[in-house]
Amino acid sequence: MIALKGAEVSAKIQAQVERQLEELGGYVPCLAIVRVGERPDDLSYEKGALSRMKKYGLRAESYSFPEDVSMEKFREKFRNISGDDRIDGILLLRPLPPQLDEKEIERMIDPAKDLDGISPENIARVFAGDETGFAPCTAEAVVRMLKSYEVPIEGKRAVIVGRSAVVGRPLAMLLLKEHATVTVCHTRTRDLERVCREAEILVAAAGKPRMIGAAHVREGAVAVDVGINVDENGKLCGDIDFEAVSEKASMATPVPGGVGAVTTAVLAEHLVRAAAMRRK
Ligand code: NAP
To answer: If we measure between CA atoms, which residue out of 110, 122, 219, 251 comes closest to residue 174?
Structure first.
């Protein structure tokens, strides 16, 4: 079985970002990362994104708010960030605490700076198969990973486990655009193992440590693991039992070292594209 390495894919994206940066004639795009509270996974994603931007020669600023920030205060500050001309792109770390109205915030973000595709405009573009908007970085990272390893998508049966607005749903649209036949599974799906075994491309995005085992995988399938979980021993792991599926899958992504590494590379690429679009 071939392990699909995120580092190889992100290196290719880096080369592309460097070429796009040259076209900006010395202008250095700036990312704003907005975080509420101190959730460990947010802090770790923020750290990864900051170091990726630095590595690619891009600027990034962190804006953090206390966990109990009021909607009124957040609205005012977020509007300023979104309207700040120095800022080319925004990454809002979610989920947000319950006092913040996520729907209102999604509508507030300038779609031209909405690098993770949370605004209604960008969601609509993803659903319409229009590539001029920004798709959620993780969903796009899955497709980039497959394309980078020249996995044929057209006409293939793809099964996604997970239907969240950030990963499963937009990924279904992106794979559909690539002409896959897509099935999306969730907690009410009957006989998940059987449905997964139909997949030539199986994507796990459920957030359940190693829930996908050999019984879910068809011989020769490509298995992509979006999950980032901590197991009972405090070890980082995905939704796929990598060892178990390695006997049946032809290719699979490890965790860590798989899709996660590509996600921040896609974020950097979105930032440079947003800056180029704004400067036109
Ligand atoms: P989420 O919002 O919790 O959604 C999980 C989805 O999986 C839901 O649709 C849920 O079904 C489904 N699900 C959960 N358990 C299931 C089961 N036993 N059988 C079938 N379906 C099941 O999670 P998310 O935000 O999409 O994130 C998913 C995973 O990806 C997490 O581990 C997260 O940390 C990771 N993630 C990784 C990246 C990256 O860059 N690699 C980025 C974002 C998220 P229902 O809808 O029926 O509840």
So the answer is: 122
